[in-house]
Design a protein that fits this description.
Blueprint (H helix, E strand, L loop, with lengths): L2 E4 L4 H17 L5 E4 L2 H5 L8 E4 L2 E5 L5 H9 L1
Parallel strand pairs: 1-2
Antiparallel strand pairs: 1-3, 3-4
Helix pairs in contact: 1-3
Length: 77
């Protein structure tokens, strides 16, 4: 599994990364989180607002800070 956080490093991006780490810990999963900060790379995913959450190259959330519980549900799918 591959997880990416899309964002330039704003507070919301940091919080999304934190919530993602918390969800992974709750589920007992060890996955490396990659932070994508280059706007050209972010634009390739077609999102208009950051932060974005990408799981296995599929955008599953963007424009908001998903909670750890929401992320855990996405990871279970």
């Amino acid at each position: 599994m591959e997880i990416k956080i899309l964002g330039i490093g704003c507070k919301n991006c940091v919080n999304l990364a934190k919530n993602t780490e918390e969800a992974l810990k709750e589920l007992g999963m060890e996955v490396t989180i990659t932070k994508v900060t280059d706007m050209k790379d972010i634009a390739k995913y077609g999102i208009m607002r950051t932060p974005g959450l990408v799981i296995d190259e599929k955008v599953v959330s963007y424009g908001k800070v998903a909670s750890a519980d929401e992320i855990a549900e996405l990871l279970k799918k």
